[in-house]
Amino acid sequence: MSSQTGSRKHDELEEKVLFVNRCSKVVKGGRKFSFSALILVGDRQGRVGYGFGKANELTDAIRKGGEAARRNLITFEMEATSIPHEVLVDCDGAVLLLKPAPEGTGVIAGSRVRSVLEFAGVRDVVAKSMGSCNPLNQVKAAFKALSSLRNRQRILEMRGIA
Predict the structure, then answer these.
(1) The CATH fold of domain 2-74
(2) pLDDT tens-digit readout, 49-83
(3) Which of 17, 35, 61, 126 is deepest in the core (most CB within 10 A)?
(4) What CATH code is assigned to 76-156?
(5) Is the distance from CB of 100 to CB of 149 less than 8 angstroms?
(6) Average predicted confidence (pLDDT) for the chain
(7) What does residue 139 show for φ and ψ, rounded to 5 degrees?
C-alpha cells in the first residue's frame, strides 16, 4: 500500500526537459556521442527542483537528471500568486532580477526562467535575465533567487517589531 502512495507522490510532480547537449569525441572507429540533459521537476504549488544528468544515451541522461531533480526539491515563500519582494541574484555569471507583479500580470520572463517559475507555481512575476545565456547557470540563478525569498511577517517577528 505504501508503494502506491509513493508512486502517487512522484506522479503529481511534472517533469520537463529544459536543455539537451550532445558532445562528440572523435575516436579510432569514428565519432562517439555523449549527452547531457537539464531536467526540471515541479508540482506548481511551491515545490520545484532541477537536475543535470550525463550519459552515453539520451534516455539515460534524462532519467539521471530526473532522479537528481527529485532529490533536489526546494520549497520557497510565496505571497498570494506572486513573490513577497524583489530579489537580484548573481550566480556563475548569470544575473537574475525577480520583481513581484499585481495579480493578472502573468509570468514575464525568458524561456528557462519562465519554466522554473511556472513549475514552482508563481503566476504573477516580472523577471529579467542579464549576463550569461548558459541554461544551467540561468536555472541555478532562478533557484538561488527563489531560495533567498523571505516572508515579510517572519522577518518582522525576528526583528521584534510584530
Answers:
(1) Double Stranded RNA Binding Domain (3.30.160)
(2) 999 999 999 999 999 999 999 999 999 988 888 99
(3) 61
(4) 3.30.230.10
(5) no
(6) 89
(7) -65, -40
